[in-house]
């Protein structure tokens, strides 16, 4: 392993000069800095993380709080996490994953130990117990999600309210008047998770404006759960011609059950999904969908956090506009018999 002293000898400078180049604590002439940086590249020197942290009072680590719950679609969470990690690395930061459901305790551990310079918080609830701690610490943070009160917080998220409204508008333009919403698992709504609540609020509000009937049912996902929910919906609202699905694990079971019942998609039933692009295009019927911009959310969160770490950012809410892509699963509402 190459040492700092070896870099200094190679560059023809003192070890303290190399240290100052790395830390930026003292002004070094451009020619000397260039010579040291050239030696670092040629020798493949990597500063010791512990020593660098002691020198700068920074760990160069960002904590990512990403509770991996069984009722959440993990691939989307991990896609965001990968975008966070890869973007952070381009700014010289590593990422520490905190995957437990610890809530405020995890925030206290990070802020109290100096484990990380900053935090990104996911799986945000409308009344999240972690928020008072985040507001009260001097460690920068960014939420990927939107709580009810964003005061003193920086948030990056898809505009879920607009997403719900967009799905309803699409079905309304096709003549559908009776719509069912297949939602996330019941526990997601019991926790008042922001994205699910906001989607439903936006969808219902726009449906009222357009004079549409909407029935929402939470669903655990999987074939058996979807079969029970579908039977219940069609029993309560036999005139349903459009479905909005915000539950990746329910998409394929719904399409299979509709086929079993002889209901053609989109001739008899139209389906619009809120899901990753990959889920939409690989479904047995290519789905009209609003994509979840996981990579963009992760990238934006890191960029805002790095700006905060540099002391240049103010708290703000960044909502990404939803985009609906029309595919084979949506079409005109069938004519009444």
TrEMBL record:
InterPro entries (alphabetical): Cro/C1-type_HTH, HTH_LacI, LacI/GalR-like_sensor, Lambda_DNA-bd_dom_sf, Peripla_BP_I
Occurrences of domain HTH cro/C1-type (ranges): 3-32
Domain HTH lacI-type: 2-56
UniProt keyword list: DNA-binding, Transcription, Transcription regulation
SUPFAM superfamilies: lambda repressor-like DNA-binding domains (SSF47413), Periplasmic binding protein-like I (SSF53822)
PANTHER family associated with the record: LACI-RELATED TRANSCRIPTIONAL REPRESSOR, LACTOSE OPERON REPRESSOR
Listed name of the protein: LacI family DNA-binding transcriptional regulator
């Amino acid at each position: 392993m190459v040492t700092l002293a070896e870099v200094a000898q190679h560059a023809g400078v003192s070890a303290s000069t190399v240290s100052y180049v790395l830390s930026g604590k003292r002004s070094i002439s451009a020619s000397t800095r260039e010579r040291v940086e050239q030696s670092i590249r040629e020798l493949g020197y990597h500063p010791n993380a512990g020593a660098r942290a002691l020198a700068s009072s920074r760990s160069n680590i960002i904590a990512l709080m990403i509770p991996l719950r069984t009722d959440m679609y993990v691939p989307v969470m991990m896609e965001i996490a990968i975008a966070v990690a890869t973007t952070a690395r381009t700014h010289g930061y590593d990422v520490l994953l905190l995957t437990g459901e610890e809530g405020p305790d995890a925030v206290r551990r990070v802020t109290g130990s100096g484990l990380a310079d900053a935090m990104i918080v996911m799986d945000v609830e409308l009344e999240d117990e972690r928020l008072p701690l985040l507001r009260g610490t001097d460690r920068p943070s960014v939420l990927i999600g939107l709580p009810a009160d964003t005061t003193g917080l920086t948030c990056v998220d898809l505009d879920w309210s607009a997403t719900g409204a967009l799905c309803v508008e699409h079905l309304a333009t096709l003549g559908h008047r009776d719509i069912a919403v297949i939602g996330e698992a019941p526990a997601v709504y019991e926790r008042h998770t922001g994205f699910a609540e906001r989607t439903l609020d936006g969808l219902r509000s726009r449906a009222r404006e357009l004079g549409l009937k909407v029935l929402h049912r939470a669903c655990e996902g999987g074939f058996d759960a979807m079969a029970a929910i579908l039977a219940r919906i069609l029993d309560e609202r036999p005139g349903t011609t459009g479905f909005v699905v915000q539950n990746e694990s329910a998409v394929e079971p719904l399409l299979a059950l509709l086929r079993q019942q002889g209901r053609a998609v989109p001739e008899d039933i139209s389906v619009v999904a809120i899901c990753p692009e990959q889920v939409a295009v690989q479904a047995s019927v290519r789905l009209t969908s609003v994509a979840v911009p996981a990579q963009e959310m992760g990238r934006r969160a890191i960029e805002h956090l790095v700006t905060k770490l540099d002391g240049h950012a103010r708290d703000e809410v960044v909502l990404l506009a939803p985009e609906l892509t029309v595919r084979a699963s949506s079409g005109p509402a069938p004519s009444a018999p």
